[in-house]
Amino acid sequence: MKNVFLFLMLTAGAMGADNSPALPDLRIPVTPDLRAVQSSEQLWRVSLVSVAVAQAMDSHSSWGKRELNPVLANEAGAFGTKGALIKLTITSSLMGIEYLVTRGHRNQRLYRTLSVINFGAAGASAAVATRNYGIPRR
């Protein structure tokens, strides 16, 4: 009985849909300026991914090796869970701050500036990771 009732309700709704007035077009027109902001935003998102990947590479390349930074070193002086959690916290905090800054301000210049900063940081981290891969483990 429930199936019959459901079928009747759906059929009645579909039949009434033809007589409804046309809905207004609520889509936002895409202007060249909006397109530029969207492409800058996509570039910024890619730069965030590059920072995350570079930090992961740096952590992987340092794991179990002697750590020169005393904040990241564990009791044995090596890079381990403590250092990885500190790096993860710092990286995710900076990404969160960038998100909060850009959330209310969809600005092409802001996205581009943050993208340059992020790609620079990712390049530096990747360079350190490349150097670390050349150092043998203990």
What does this entry show, briefly?
The protein has 138 residues and is mostly helical. It is 70% helix and 0% strand.
Structural overview:
The protein is an all-alpha fold and 138 residues long. 70% of the residues lie in helices and 0% in strands. It contains four helices and no strands. Helix 2 runs antiparallel to helix 3 and helix 2 packs parallel to helix 4. The longest helix has 31 residues. The mean pLDDT is 84.
Task: List key phrases describing it.
4 helices; mainly alpha; 138 residues
Q: Layout of SSEs?
A:
Layout: H1 2-17, H2 32-62, H3 81-103, H4 108-133
Q: What would the average pLDDT be, to the nearest integer?
A: 84
Largest sheet: none
β content, as a range? Answer: under 5%
Fraction of helical residues = 55-70%
Parts with pLDDT < 50 across at least 5 consecutive residues: none
- Radius of gyration, in Å, reads 26 Å
